[in-house]
Specification:
430 residues, 15% strand
């Protein structure tokens, strides 16, 4: 009963917050639309970090497309995006362009997405990203940017503790935390308030990320002869969570991502848990002096450094079938994902890593975080995020289990048992 009550409050709060953001963005967009006649395109993304840039980005496009009166961007925090999208669907007010993920997630949404058919434009994208937005031979989304997910490090504070690099193994991570404390530097900032987001999007899949084929690993959870291996992996992940609570902020379970970032940016903590290279646009605009001191590294849950891989998320966008301007929305999406002009703006002004930047090996013009992610990909030290390939229900229920571990409601053994039961039940009915 306790678990149900907790989840009920969390879900209700997120949905209400999402609805509030929707209302605010709609009001702002309505005012802009009234002031500027012409076609109005709407875009929804889990990228609040873009908020200081999208007007200029839109103006770049509208210079060559005077038929577009305005482009309204609904940019929300990742913690509420999924619920906001479902609220928009239920109210039949989906934006023209949305983010939905791949494979299982795309399977859920494909009936609402417009097939994209301009193969000549898509050929500009490098492999393997070019085909990621396809499902059963039909293209539903266009990959836009690549983001690395792990631990954000303040290299200046690490150097103060005698470290010239970030840790690569679990024992090194623990030693770094001890060395930081010896220098009266607070080691880690957690933001477990968004437990579902943190677990569902990133952390609970870390054991799979260490495998050569993460998707096959998840499916093989049904194999009884690999039980010991699963237990070892889940124990390693639980060890990491324990370390984050031991060396993290005292209010780890009630701190949200915005607050955690604020403390990290004023250099109160040396590490920011479960963070990504999406910080680059924020650093470029508001913390340029700190930009070259912030690095992104893999979360070290294993003693074998080669098994600890940086999670890589590919963000792709789709056009919805209900769009009032499907042709114009599709053209804008192609421009945003494949044009030289948009790619240059994303790369040089915003500090992002556009998919188009993977067409060559150069790091020139990339922000420090984007360059780190690209170099890690080139060197084979990354694993493609498979979480956004899972159906939302399975993803969220899996995340809830680890959330209950953090709060002490479930033991390690109970998490593993419940997770395997959840996965088996899903495979049985799908």
């Amino acid at each position: 009963m306790k678990r149900r009550i907790i989840i009920g409050f969390i879900t209700a709060g997120i949905v209400l917050a999402a609805a509030g953001c929707k209302s605010q963005n709609t009001e702002n967009g309505a005012a802009e639309a009234a002031a500027e006649p012409g076609i109005v395109l709407t875009v929804s993304m889990p990228s609040s970090e873009w908020s200081g840039y999208v007007k200029e980005l839109s103006d770049l496009y509208r210079k060559e497309h005077p038929e577009i009166g305005s482009i309204e961007w609904n940019l929300v925090d990742r913690s509420m995006y999924s619920d906001l999208l479902r609220v928009s669907l239920a109210s039949q007010k989906l934006p023209d362009i949305i983010y939905v993920g791949f494979e299982g997630s795309m399977e859920e949404w494909k009936d609402h997405l417009l097939p994209l058919e301009d193969q000549n434009v898509l050929q500009k994208l490098p492999m393997p990203y070019r085909t990621m937005g396809s499902l059963e031979g039909t293209v539903y989304s266009v990959p836009l940017q690549i983001q690395g997910i792990g631990i954000a490090y303040n290299q200046k504070l690490l150097r103060a503790a005698g470290w010239e690099r970030f840790p690569e193994t679990k024992s090194e991570f623990e030693q770094l935390c001890l060395d930081l404390e010896e220098q009266d530097i607070k080691p880690m900032m957690n933001h477990y308030k968004e437990t579902l987001l943190t677990m569902a999007n990133n952390l609970f899949m870390l054991p799979a990320m260490a495998e050569d084929n993460p998707t096959a690993y998840m499916e093989s959870l049904l194999e009884e002869n690999r039980q010991q291996e699963y237990e070892e992996n889940w124990q390693a992940l639980a060890d990491y969570f324990d370390l984050t609570l031991r060396f993290g902020n005292r209010d780890s379970l009630t701190t949200g991502a915005p607050t955690a970032r604020d403390y990290f940016f004023i250099e109160k903590y040396a590490m920011l848990n479960d963070e990504g290279s999406w910080l680059a646009p924020v650093l470029a605009k508001s913390k340029p002096a700190l930009e070259r001191e912030i690095s992104i590294g893999a979360i070290p849950i294993y003693e074998e450094a080669e098994r600890n891989k940086l999670i890589v998320e590919v963000q792709a966008l789709s056009v919805v079938k209900s769009s009032r301007h499907p042709k114009e929305a599709e053209e804008f999406l192609y421009w945003l994902a494949t044009s030289t002009e948009a790619s240059r703006y994303l790369r040089e002004t915003m500090g992002c890593l556009p998919v188009m930047a993977m067409n060559d090996e150069s790091l020139e013009g990339l922000s420090p975080l984007a360059a780190e992610v690209k170099e890690s990909i080139k060197e084979g030290r990354t694993a493609l995020d498979v979480v956004n390939c899972l159906p939302g229900e399975l993803k969220n229920k899996s995340a809830e289990l680890w959330g209950f571990y953090l709060t002490g409601d479930l033991s390690r053994e109970e998490v593993l048992t419940d997770y395997q039961s959840l996965w088996k039940d899903y495979m049985k009915h799908n």
